[in-house]
Design a protein that fits this description.
With about 140 residues, this protein is an all-alpha fold.
Protein backbone atom coordinates (compact mmCIF):
# COMPACT_ATOMS: atom_id res chain seq x y z
CA UNK A 1 0.00 0.00 0.00
CA UNK A 2 1.31 3.43 -0.97
CA UNK A 3 1.78 5.78 1.97
CA UNK A 4 0.39 9.29 1.55
CA UNK A 5 2.75 12.30 1.52
CA UNK A 6 1.14 13.56 4.74
CA UNK A 7 1.67 10.21 6.49
CA UNK A 8 5.31 10.30 5.41
CA UNK A 9 5.52 13.89 6.72
CA UNK A 10 4.14 12.72 10.08
CA UNK A 11 6.54 9.78 10.24
CA UNK A 12 9.50 12.02 9.46
CA UNK A 13 8.29 14.69 11.90
CA UNK A 14 8.10 12.09 14.70
CA UNK A 15 11.67 11.04 13.94
CA UNK A 16 12.84 14.66 13.88
CA UNK A 17 11.00 15.46 17.14
CA UNK A 18 12.60 12.41 18.74
CA UNK A 19 16.04 13.47 17.47
CA UNK A 20 15.53 17.04 18.75
CA UNK A 21 14.40 15.76 22.16
CA UNK A 22 17.27 13.28 22.54
CA UNK A 23 20.08 15.40 21.07
CA UNK A 24 19.00 18.79 22.49
CA UNK A 25 20.31 20.34 19.27
CA UNK A 26 18.61 23.36 17.73
CA UNK A 27 15.62 22.96 15.45
CA UNK A 28 17.71 24.18 12.53
CA UNK A 29 20.50 21.67 13.20
CA UNK A 30 18.09 18.76 13.55
CA UNK A 31 16.07 19.71 10.48
CA UNK A 32 19.14 20.18 8.30
CA UNK A 33 20.74 16.92 9.43
CA UNK A 34 17.47 15.05 9.12
CA UNK A 35 16.78 16.25 5.58
CA UNK A 36 20.38 15.54 4.55
CA UNK A 37 20.45 12.04 6.08
CA UNK A 38 16.94 10.70 5.43
CA UNK A 39 15.12 9.60 2.33
CA UNK A 40 12.56 12.38 1.98
CA UNK A 41 11.06 11.00 -1.22
CA UNK A 42 7.27 11.17 -1.12
CA UNK A 43 7.20 13.50 1.90
CA UNK A 44 4.96 16.58 2.02
CA UNK A 45 7.91 18.81 2.93
CA UNK A 46 5.95 21.95 3.85
CA UNK A 47 3.77 19.88 6.19
CA UNK A 48 6.81 18.12 7.67
CA UNK A 49 8.40 21.49 8.48
CA UNK A 50 5.13 22.88 9.84
CA UNK A 51 4.66 19.87 12.13
CA UNK A 52 8.25 19.69 13.34
CA UNK A 53 8.63 23.39 14.02
CA UNK A 54 5.10 23.65 15.39
CA UNK A 55 5.77 20.97 17.99
CA UNK A 56 9.12 22.43 19.00
CA UNK A 57 7.72 25.99 19.19
CA UNK A 58 4.77 24.86 21.33
CA UNK A 59 6.25 21.93 23.26
CA UNK A 60 5.48 23.34 26.72
CA UNK A 61 1.83 23.97 25.84
CA UNK A 62 1.49 20.57 24.17
CA UNK A 63 3.00 18.82 27.20
CA UNK A 64 0.63 20.78 29.44
CA UNK A 65 -2.48 19.71 27.52
CA UNK A 66 -1.31 16.07 27.41
CA UNK A 67 -0.33 15.86 31.10
CA UNK A 68 -3.81 15.25 32.61
CA UNK A 69 -4.32 12.20 30.37
CA UNK A 70 -1.03 10.44 31.09
CA UNK A 71 -1.08 7.47 33.44
CA UNK A 72 2.55 7.91 34.46
CA UNK A 73 5.24 10.52 34.88
CA UNK A 74 6.28 12.13 31.59
CA UNK A 75 9.88 11.04 32.08
CA UNK A 76 8.70 7.41 32.20
CA UNK A 77 7.09 7.57 28.75
CA UNK A 78 9.13 6.09 25.94
CA UNK A 79 10.67 8.95 23.92
CA UNK A 80 9.14 7.65 20.67
CA UNK A 81 5.67 7.48 22.24
CA UNK A 82 6.21 10.94 23.69
CA UNK A 83 7.17 12.25 20.24
CA UNK A 84 4.04 10.73 18.70
CA UNK A 85 1.85 12.19 21.46
CA UNK A 86 3.43 15.60 21.00
CA UNK A 87 2.89 15.49 17.24
CA UNK A 88 -0.73 14.36 17.58
CA UNK A 89 -1.35 16.85 20.38
CA UNK A 90 -0.03 19.61 18.16
CA UNK A 91 -2.30 18.58 15.29
CA UNK A 92 -5.36 18.33 17.54
CA UNK A 93 -4.68 21.77 19.03
CA UNK A 94 -3.47 23.75 16.02
CA UNK A 95 -4.34 22.02 12.73
CA UNK A 96 -8.04 22.82 12.54
CA UNK A 97 -8.34 21.65 8.92
CA UNK A 98 -7.40 18.07 9.87
CA UNK A 99 -10.34 16.09 11.30
CA UNK A 100 -9.65 14.80 14.80
CA UNK A 101 -10.39 11.22 13.75
CA UNK A 102 -7.66 11.50 11.11
CA UNK A 103 -5.20 12.82 13.72
CA UNK A 104 -5.99 9.94 16.08
CA UNK A 105 -5.76 7.34 13.31
CA UNK A 106 -2.48 8.76 12.05
CA UNK A 107 -1.05 8.75 15.58
CA UNK A 108 -2.02 5.09 15.91
CA UNK A 109 -0.54 4.17 12.53
CA UNK A 110 2.73 6.00 13.22
CA UNK A 111 2.93 4.22 16.60
CA UNK A 112 2.54 0.89 14.81
CA UNK A 113 5.57 1.77 12.67
CA UNK A 114 7.89 3.19 15.35
CA UNK A 115 6.51 2.21 18.75
CA UNK A 116 6.67 -0.94 20.80
CA UNK A 117 4.12 -3.74 20.30
CA UNK A 118 1.24 -2.17 22.22
CA UNK A 119 2.17 1.50 22.05
CA UNK A 120 -0.55 2.19 19.48
CA UNK A 121 -3.13 1.22 22.14
CA UNK A 122 -1.58 3.63 24.62
CA UNK A 123 -1.50 6.43 22.02
CA UNK A 124 -5.13 5.73 21.12
CA UNK A 125 -6.23 5.87 24.76
CA UNK A 126 -4.56 9.24 25.37
CA UNK A 127 -5.76 10.84 22.13
CA UNK A 128 -9.32 9.56 22.61
CA UNK A 129 -9.43 11.49 25.90
CA UNK A 130 -7.58 14.56 24.64
CA UNK A 131 -9.70 15.21 21.54
CA UNK A 132 -12.98 15.90 23.40
CA UNK A 133 -11.11 18.02 25.96
CA UNK A 134 -9.97 20.22 23.07
CA UNK A 135 -13.55 20.52 21.78
CA UNK A 136 -13.19 17.89 19.06
CA UNK A 137 -16.29 15.73 18.68
Amino acid sequence: MKVSPRRRARECAVQAIYSWYISQNTVEEVELAFIADQDMKGVDMPYFRKLFRGVVDNVELIDEILRPYLDRNESDIDPIERSILRLSGYELKFEHDVPFRVVINEGIEVAKVFGSDDSHKYINGILDKLAPALGKK
